[in-house]
């Protein structure tokens, strides 16, 4: 696997002059941060050796290289999901490549369902923890010692310093943010009322189908992580409505400018 990571990284280096210090993964309907990047190079996933290819509407499927907030960045416009049929090792493959490319921080966005009764549709939630409800873990299998320890600590999966800076940015710009725990499930079905209740009862504030595997792998490699969610639907008793994937994209798009501002300024200040 290490050879495959290096093969992908070598190909990418042959196509860009950017040496990124920041990695970004953009979630469903949240690709607008790319518009803030002074783009130098773009590489299609399908052209990169060993890379999976995104199959989901709202995920473009290319790597973006450029400048954002005075930093050299590498952004995934479109991510991979377990429900597409990929293994968790394949889902997190790009994060491994990002590390080899030199990133020092990882920023992740996602659209999620809120289970906290205090949340409303459109809520912006800064993640401070997660619960892995995937049926596996991306670190299962032989450990790659060159990249990380066999038993990585996850007591600070989301970096407290980055959360603090993001909180300051939100206050300065009068952006209401909440803080919470994100539960990662497989999808592709949205949750039943009983599943929403279960997720809330075990300590989560939001639920989604991504982020957790990527963060686990990033922390395995000792990369500080920051993740932010836009609550696009509610799994709260009395507030549950039928939701389509298009509904999720539309709600995410409305709140995206606020999320983009926080991410852009945070990257500038680290």
Topology (SSEs and partners):
Blueprint: H1 2-15, E1 22-26, E2 38-44, E3 62-68, E4 71-77, H2 88-91, H3 93-101, E5 105-114, E6 124-132, H4 160-172, E7 178-184, H5 193-201, E8 206-208, H6 212-220, E9 225-234, H7 245-269
Parallel strand pairs: 1-4, 1-5, 5-9, 6-7, 7-8
Antiparallel strand pairs: 2-3, 3-4, 5-8, 6-9
Descriptive overview:
The chain has helices at 2-15, 88-91, 93-101, 160-172, 193-201, 212-220, 245-269, and strands at residues 22-26, 38-44, 62-68, 71-77, 105-114, 124-132, 178-184, 206-208, 225-234. The chain is globular. Helix 1 (2-15) crosses helix 3 and helix 4 packs across helix 7 (245-269). The protein has a five-stranded mixed beta barrel, surrounded by four helices. It has one domain: Nucleoside phosphorylase domain (Rossmann fold, 3-Layer(aba) Sandwich). With 270 residues, it is an alpha/beta fold.
